[in-house]
Amino acid sequence: MSDFLTSQNEDFSKWYNEIVQKAELADYSPVRGCMVIRPYGYTLWERIRDELDRRFKETGHVNAYFPLFIPMSFLQKEAEHVEGFAPELAVVTHGGGKELEEPLVVRPTSETIIGHMYAKWIQSYRDLPLLINQWANVVRWEMRTRLFLRTTEFLWQEGHTAHATHDEAREETLRMLDVYTDFAVNEAAIPVIPGRKSDAEKFAGAVTSYTIEAMMRDGKALQSGTSHFLGQNFAKAFDIQFLDENNTLQHAWTTSWGVSTRMVGAVVMTHGDDQGLVLPPRLAPIQAVIVPIWRKNRQRAEVLEAAEKLSRRLQGRVRIKLDDREGFSPGWKYNDWEMRGVPLRLEFGPRDIANEQVMVARRDVPGREGKTILPLAGLEETIPALLAEVQAAIYQKALDFRESHTWDVKTAGEFQEAVQHGFARAWWAGDSEDEARLKDETKATIRCIPLEQPGGSGDCFYTGREATEVAIFGRAY
Predict the structure, then answer these.
(1) pLDDT-based confidence at residue 82 (cuts at 50, 70, 90)
(2) According to the model, what pLDDT value does residue 81 have?
(3) Cα 395 vs. chain centroid, distance in angstroms?
(4) Were both Cys, which of 46, 73, 151, 163 would link to 168 (CB 3.0–4.6 Å)?
(5) Cβ distance 245 to 124 under 8 Å?
(6) Angle between the 262-271 and 39-58 helix axes, to the nearest 10 degrees?
(7) Looking at residue 3, what is its pLDDT?
């Protein structure tokens, strides 16, 4: 264990706060509940953003931008929506030294302002589907905050689409859930469970909400992305209407979906260990670092020249960094890059130059077991191949952890034990009141009703009634 990091077993929450700051991902702002995202953390967010953005555009979506300030009256048009967000709103009442005629809400989400604009833009079935995403910041006045996981202001993307039919909108909702699942698994190396939210947990104003749920290293759940089928609720509230092919006026069917900087926290808590971050190679800002080694000053120039040559060879193949900082020992640099989660470390000294080789250390495999000597010849192919192995290995490790911390339960006692350490999987036939009582008793909620179901039926562990669906329960961030 690092001598300056609290171990995960001792205090996972403290470990998380320490590593986010020590790895220079983020720091606290002078404004309560806000964060400053530092360059290393922002580069990680950029990697997340770029990979998601590519997927959005491949599925026909385009980017736009909508205002930060929303008239209060807009939120009041959709009753369930305003009720759901009322405790979290930041409201501007004065501007330019004068009281505003109407208070403005600082954007908590954009369904209302976008609904207003869609009503202007959509006139005919020929205008549909309208597939727009925006990258933005939002503000929700959180009472308990934690860097990346829950902050007053955070960055995210929010997709908003309008469709001619119920089926098209629902298909879009599930398509974007699949996009999030694909990203989480293949880029972030996070095994997620895609599923439907319970009525008690769904988005305010949605007909149906879907989610991808991940398990962190402490056994708690993290909602990592959501996709909402909004039906015609917002279309009716904002008069989003169109003339169909029969020249009949219809209300559009809409969706919304989003992933936020919370995904950075998910990466940290899914893969990190007592030495610091363990970043998936596909998202890592730096995929491999070269640490030059010499014992005598006369070796310095030769080693640095060879290391620079090696770095140039790998540029364009991997995101490479040459650590030529003065005044720090190789051992100190090893620890520093381990803490920052760089997937591969290339140790390169006079003996390696003479033997035309390099010592490569994997971040995901500690100690000597993670080290291997590779010939310099063909390194442009072997390093990317090794990074792919690391990506697959850390995904499998996270999947094995989740599976070993998920229990099928049939009794209240089994349930209570399971949610203290991970997920409970059980037949469920309760209603929202049952779910509320269960949350009061155990601090656990329905994380999702998985899309993949076993079929058949069983007895609900809580109500005893016959159930036709299995749900995943857990304590969550």
Answers:
(1) low
(2) 64
(3) 15
(4) 163
(5) no
(6) 110
(7) 55
> What CATH number has the domain spanning 407-474?
3.30.110.30
Identical fold between 288-401 and 407-474: no
Q: What is the mean pLDDT of residues 418-440?
A: 97
Q: Output the six-digit token pair for 371.
A: 């080290």
CA distance 16 to 222: 14
- Cβ 230 vs Cβ 243: under 8 Å: no
Backbone angles phi, psi at 235, to 5 degrees: -65, -40
Q: What is the DSSP letter of 38?
A: P
| 3-class state of residue 294 by DSSP | coil
Amino acid 164: pLDDT: 98
pTM as predicted: 0.95
Where are the domains positioned within the chain? 12-271, 288-401, 407-474
Average pLDDT, the chain: 95
Q: How distant is the alpha carbon of residue 328 from its chain centre?
A: 34
Q: Which residues contact 432 (CB under 8 A, 6 or more apart)?
A: 198, 199, 200
The number of residues in the chain equals 477
422/475 Cα distance (integer angstroms): 8
Check residue 276 and report its DSSP letter.
Answer: B
* Amino acid letter for position 272: G
Neighbours of 99 (CB within 10 A): 9
Cα 52 to chain centroid distance, Å, stands at 11
What pLDDT was estimated at residue 207? 97
* Residues 423, 195 contacting (CB under 8 angstroms): no
Residues 6 or more apart whose Cβ sits within 8 Å of residue 244:
125, 164, 250
Give just the sign of the alpha carbon dihedral 305, 309, 310, 315: positive
CATH topology of domain 288-401: Rossmann fold (3.40.50)
CA atoms of 66 and 21, how far apart (whole Å): 32
What would the pLDDT profile of 87-127 be if each residue is shown by its tens digit?
889 999 999 999 999 999 999 999 999 999 999 999 999 99
Q: What is the pLDDT of residues 148-177, one digit of tens each?
A: 999 999 999 999 999 999 999 999 999 999
Rounded Cα distance, 302 and 352, in Å:
12
Q: Residue 202 CA to chain centroid, in angstroms?
A: 18
| Cα gap 251→232, rounded to integer Å | 7
DSSP secondary structure string for all residues of 334-359: HHHHHHTT-SEEEEE-HHHHHHTEEE
- Give domain 12-271's CATH superfamily: Bira Bifunctional Protein; Domain 2 (3.30.930.10)
Q: Is 390 helix (H, G, I), strand (E, B) or coil?
A: helix
